Amino acid sequence: MTAIGNPKTLANFINCLSLLERNTYLLYQEIADKIEVPLVKSFLLQIALDSQKHSISLKGIAESIANPEGNLKDCQKNTGETWRMVDVILKDVKGKTRIVSGNFTKLAERLSVLESVMGEEYYMFVQLKTLEFMIKEINQIYSIDLGSVKKIFLNIIRDEETHRELLEKIKTLVKPKTKVDTAPVVKYQNPDAWSRPLPETG
After folding, report:
1. Which among 27, 85, 97, 175 is least buried, having the fewest CB atoms inside 10 angstroms?
2. C-alpha separations of 51 from 2, 21, 27, 113, 201 in Å
């Protein structure tokens, strides 16, 4: 994450995060549309709606600092690997007519990595002095304290953690079932028992 030294640059960066979250929303929406398992679909839509909410919140913060002016190329540069990851996965998903639940595990792993990277980005941002600088800029126009805006970013970080947990649940839901052998265990413990003569009756 690059150093941010003026209101316009900061507004542009936050706006890029908003666009990144919008793309993430589109990604999860696309995946949910192609998954047939209702519970998996509902988890994916929950993540999609969280990402949409993040996008709206970040856009509001950016526009409270300055009028952002960023194009997609600038945003690709500003958010680096994270933007590329979303873009690559989205292109892969769009190339499929449907996603079979049994093949979803590998995709869920990629999404988990994405959520981890995004959570780390927000965590680093909260730790930087940039956040305090941002609050001072917003306070010149609105009466907002540091805690209020910081809470938005902390909530996003918590959401990213929840997304990883949901993806772990999804992986267990789509895990292929192994065939259970219903043969009596004794057959394997003592094969000779199956060939012994039956005891005489009477």
Report:
1. 97
2. 23, 5, 10, 16, 74
Q: Does residue 4 surpass a pLDDT of 60?
A: no
SS3 track for 121-163: HHHHHHHCCHHHHHHHHHHCCCCCCHHHHHHHHHHHHHHHHHH
Residue 161, pLDDT > 80, answer: yes
Any idea which architecture 7-194 has in CATH? Answer: Up-down Bundle (1.20)
If one compares 10 and 147, the residue with the highest pLDDT of the two is 10
Q: For residue 140, give Cα distances in angstroms to 66, 135, 137, 172.
A: 11, 9, 5, 49
Q: Rounded to an integer, what distance in angstroms lies between the CA atom of residue 157 and that of residue 144?
A: 20
| Contacts of range 135-140, beta carbons closer than 8 Å, 24 or more positions apart | 137/7, 137/10, 137/65, 137/66, 138/61, 138/64, 138/65
- Where do the domains of the chain lie? 7-194
CA 23 to chain centre: 11
